[in-house]
Amino acid sequence: MKPSNARTFADVLAAARSGDSWAYDRLYRSLARPITGFVTVRGAEDPDAMTNEVFLKAFRALGSFDGEESDFRSWVFSIARNTLVDSRRRSARRPQLAAHANIDIEVSPSAEAEAMDVLSMERITSILARLSDDQREVITLRLVADLSLAQVAEIVGKPVTAVKALQRRGIRRLQKEIGETGVSE
Amino acid sequence: MNEPDVNPGEMNDDALTDAEIESLFEYKNSGAFNEPLARFMADARSVIADIEPAEPSPALLEFIDVSAPPVPIRITTPETEVVELIEIDRSGVLYRSTKRRAISAAATFVLLGGLFVSAVATGPGLPGLGQGNESGLVVGSSTSSAVAGTSQEAAQDPIKDSAKGDEFSASTGAGSTSAQGETESSSTQQRQGSSATSVPESTGLLPTETSAVSTPGTHLSTTTLPNTTTSPTSTSTISTSTTSTPSSSTSTTSTSSSSTSVPSTVANQSFPYSVSGVASVTVSVVDGYVAFSGPNAQPGWTVEEQHTDGVEAEIRFTDGEVQVRLRAEVEDGLLTVTVRDERDDDDQSEASSDGAQPIVGQTTATPDSDDPDSDNPSADDSGPGHADDPDPDGSDPDSDPDDTDSDDSDRGNSGSGKSPDDSD
Predict the structure, then answer these.
(1) Residue B243, Cβ neighbours under 10 Å: how many?
(2) Which of B127, B167, B257, B334 makes a 20 to 30 Å CA pair with B382?
C-alpha cells in the first residue's frame, strides 16, 4: 500500500498492520509529542525512553486494536499510563530512588518562556504538583491527550463519576493555587 | 490518597459549573469566568503536548521509516531522441512518422529498492542545438523496469521495441520541438480501426505520457507518471503528439514551463530545485503536503511572494517586471512542480531552455521537518469532543473518588483494543 493524500485512519491502520513503515511513522508522529509530554508531567524517570517503550508496545500489539482514531489515541495513552505504573512499581522496589508521584519542582520560569509570555514547563509542573496524583492524572489526560471523561475513566479504571469528581477537585485546587500565587509567578 | 483538604464551603463562590470546567479543556469562552485559570490550562496544554520527543530507539526504528529511501539516479546523455508524430484523419487512417533529433538532456530510469526512478538532467547539448536545461525527476512504484533506448534503432519502429533489460533510458527535448538538428527518419501509414485503438498503442511508455508543444514564445513540457506504474510492454517511444511551430520573432514574452510529477511514495523527501537559473528552492513533501524551504535568489532577483495551501505552494522570483514562478502541487498522489519563466524577448533563449531543475543526487529525507500534528488532517487531533457530558447518570457525588473504584458500571467504552502490558 502506498501513501496517498486522502488517507483515513483506517487506511493508515491497515497499512501499519501490513507492515508499511510509513504508516507506523504516521502513527508515531501523530502522538509522540503528547505522549512524551504526558509521561514527563507524570514523572517518568526517562520520558524519552518511556515514549519509545510505549510505542513499541503499541506497535507490537497493534493487531489487538480495533477502533477509530480517537480510540487509538485513548488506547496509546492507556499503554502510557500502564507503563508509568509499571515503572513506578519497579522504582518502589528500589528504595534508593525517590517516588515520582508527587513531584514538586520549584523552578523559576525560563527567560525564554517569559519572553514569549508562555508559562514554562517548570512552572506548569510546579502548579500541577499541587494536585493529588489521581487529580493530576485525570487533568493531564484530559488536557494533553484530548480525551473525554469516558475515555479517561476507561484508562484509569475508575467510573466516570469518580473521574468527574477528581477533575472537579483538581480544577478547584488549581483555581485556588493560581488565585493565591498567580499564574506566572 | 493525597487528596488535599479542600473545604467545599470555601470554594462555593468560585465553584465552576460542569460546563465551565469542560470549557477549560475546550477553550470555549474560558476567559470569561476565570482568566488566570483558563490561561494556565491553555498554556499547560500547549507546552506539555508539544514536547519534542527524542529520536526513536533502534527497536522502534524497526517499525518506523524515518529515512525515506535514497533516490538512486544515473544520468546519461544520449545524442538523439525519438519524436513520434501521430495524426488521424476522418477516415481513421493513422499517419505516423518518427523523427530523430539530437538532444541535450536525458534520463536513466533505474529500479532500486522497489522504486522506479527516473531523472532528467541537463546535458551538454550538441553543437547547433538549443541548450536544453529542462529537467525533471520522476519516482514511482514499479515491480520491474525496462529499457528503452534512444538510439536510431528505436526511432525506426518505436512501437515494436520491447523491454531490454533493467534500465529504461529516456530523453526529453531541449525545449522547443522546432529545435535545429531535427531530421525525419521514417514515416509510416497504418490503418487503424479507430482512433481510440490506435492512440493507446503509442502510450506504452515510461513516463506514460510525454508531450511537448511549442508555440511562439511559449514552451510547455509536462511529464506525468501515475501511481500504478508497471513494466511497460513497449518502451521505445519517447515523445508523442508533438507539434512544431517555429518561434516567432515578434514574440515579446517567453514563457517556459515544465512539470515534474512525483508519486507520494517519495513523501517526506526534499527536492532541491534550481529555478531557471535565477534562484534555488527546496520543495519538500511532508505527509502528503508540499512546502518550500530555503529560497535563495541570485543577485538581482528577489523572492516576491511565497504561499502554501497544504497541497499547493507557489513561490515567485522577480527581477523588476520579470518573474519566474515555481508552483508545486500534490494531487492524486503526485507531486507536480511547474516553473513558469516569463522573460523579455531578449531572454527568450534562456527562458525556453530552463525550467524546474532538480539538483539530482541531493535528495534528502525530511521525516521530521515539520510538525505532523499541525498539518495532517487524517492523523491529527480529531479526538473525541467534550461538549456532551459523558456521565450517563448526570450525577456528580463529588465524593472521594477512590471509594467508588469498584463501580465499573459507567466506565467509558472507547475502542476495543486491550492495552498491552496492562498494569491494572
Answers:
(1) 13
(2) B334
Query: Shortest CB distance from A146 goes to which of B18, B376, B383?
Result: B383
* Contact (CB<8Å) A51/B15: no
Q: Name the minimum distance, in Å, from the CA of A177 to any CA of chain B.
A: 9
A8 in B contact zone (CB under 8 Å): yes
The shortest C-alpha distance from B142 to chain A (Å) reads 12
Average pLDDT of span B229-251:
34
Tell me which residue in A22, A144, A178 faces B65 most closely, judged by beta carbons: A22
B72 touches chain A (CB under 8 A): no
Percent of chain B whose pLDDT exceeds 90: 0
C-alpha cell at B394: 448526570
- CA angle B365–B366–B367, rounded 5-degree value: 105
Per residue in B145-169, pLDDT (tens digit) is 333 333 333 333 333 333 333 333 3
The 3-class SS string of A86-151 reads HHHHHHHCCCCCCCCCCCCCCCCCCHHHHHCCCCCHHHHHHHHCCCCHHHHHHHHHHHHCCCCHHH
Q: Do A26 and B424 touch (CB under 8 A)?
A: no
Burial B103-115, CB ≥16 within 10 A → b, else e: bbbbbbbbbeeeb
Is the bond into B401 cis (omega within 30 degrees of 0)?
no
Q: Quote the ipTM score.
A: 0.80
Digit-coded pLDDT (tens) for A18-33:
888 888 988 998 899 9
Residues in chain A within 8 Å Cβ distance of B411: 150, 153-154, 157-160
Residues B48-106 have pLDDT tens digits of 888 888 888 888 888 886 554 433 333 333 344 444 444 444 454 445 454 444 433 33
pLDDT digits (tens, 9 = 90+) for A131-148: 999 999 999 999 888 888
For residue A95, pLDDT over 50 is answered with: yes
Inter-helix orientation angle A69-92/A149-156, to 10°: 30
Taking CA atoms, B405 is separated from A164, B336, B399, in Å, by 13, 57, 12
Residue with cell 467534550: B386
Please name which of B98, B240, B94 lies closest in space to residue B182, comparing C-alpha atoms.
Answer: B98
Phi, psi of B383 (to 5 degrees): -70, -175
Whether the CB-CB separation of B378 and A8 falls below 8 Å is answered with yes
pTM beyond 0.90: the answer is no
Q: Where are the beta strands (DSSP E) in B181-301?
A: 183-191, 209-215, 218-224, 240-243, 253-263, 269-275, 279-286, 289-297
Nearest chain B Cα to A123, which residue? Answer: B44
Please give the residue of chain A at the shortest CA–CA distance from B140. A2
CA distance A96 to chain B (A): 22
C-alpha cell at B391: 456521565
d(CA A140, CA B200): 60
Q: Is B409 on the interface with A (CB under 8 A)?
A: yes
Which residue carries 519517447 as its cell? B238
Contact yes or no for B382/A70 (Cβ under 8 A)? yes
Number of A to B CB contacts under 8 A, please give it: 342
Which pLDDT score, from 0 to 100, does residue A132 have? 93
| CA–CA gap between residue B424 and residue B422 (Å, rounded) | 6
